[in-house]
From TrEMBL:
Quaternary structure (record): Part of the 50S ribosomal subunit.
Function: This protein binds to the 23S rRNA, and is important in its secondary structure. It is located near the subunit interface in the base of the L7/L12 stalk, and near the tRNA binding site of the peptidyltransferase center.
GO terms of molecular function: rRNA binding; structural constituent of ribosome
Assigned protein family: Belongs to the universal ribosomal protein uL6 family.
Name this protein carries in UniProt: Large ribosomal subunit protein uL6
Keywords attached to this entry: Ribonucleoprotein, Ribosomal protein, RNA-binding, rRNA-binding
PROSITE patterns xref list: RIBOSOMAL_L6_1
GO BP: cytoplasmic translation
A cellular component annotation (GO) from this entry: cytosolic large ribosomal subunit
Species the sequence originates in: Kordiimonas lacus
Domain Large ribosomal subunit protein uL6 alpha-beta span(s) in chain numbering: 11-82, 91-164
Transmembrane domains' residue ranges: none
Organism placement in taxonomy: Bacteria, Pseudomonadati, Pseudomonadota, Alphaproteobacteria, Kordiimonadales
Length: 177
């Protein structure tokens, strides 16, 4: 039994939800998101909110139950508050800056990296070593942060690279004489 799936998703004030068969559209102050449910779950809307239930007792239906409910919850949270990820750059000469609609990264390579900002994502650089990625779609925000981090992952000896804020980098000892 899915403990998460049992709870209905509450709909806060200022958010409109329209359910048309397996298609769900959520509109809020920050924007609009839509998704289509998998056929293994049923969705119903009532006074308590949106309830997701499995169609049968197969393993796939039970695994989709909690995931689909969480996706609805993330959509509602996204259109009301939004999501953000913070990246930190560590290393001598490593820096980031916004140039027009692209993120310019200098990460110790022989060339600068220009990362085009995807639609629906907002990237800010309050200083040269901090990148803040925000948007209403949790999956898209996380994927964009992972793509930027992929350009120079933190290395274990000096910790140079791009890391998530609060991420612990396992450090190794260098060569001994």
């Amino acid at each position: 039994m899915s403990r998460i799936g049992k709870k209905p998703v509450a709909i806060p004030s200022g958010v409109t939800v329209s359910l048309n068969g397996a298609d769900l559209t959520v509109k809020g102050p920050k924007g609009e998101l839509a998704m289509t449910f998998v056929p293994e779950v049923e969705v119903a809307q009532d006074d308590a909110g949106i309830a997701v239930t499995p169609v049968n007792d197969t393993k796939r239906a039970r695994s989709m139950w909690g995931m689909q409910r969480t996706m609805v919850s993330n959509m509602i949270e996204g259109v009301t508050d939004g999501f953000s990820k913070k990246l930190e750059i560590t290393g001598v000469g490593y820096r980031a800056a916004m140039k027009g609609s692209a993120l310019n990264l200098q990460l110790g390579y022989s060339h600068d990296i220009d990362f085009p900002v995807p639609a629906g994502i907002k990237i800010e650089t309050p200083d040269q070593t901090t990148i803040i990625i925000s948007g209403i779609d949790k999956q898209q925000v996380g994927e964009t942060a992972a793509k930027i981090r992929e350009f120079r992952k933190p290395e274990p000896y000096k910790g140079k690279g791009i890391k998530y804020a609060g991420e612990y980098i396992f450090r190794k000892e260098g060569k001994k004489k």
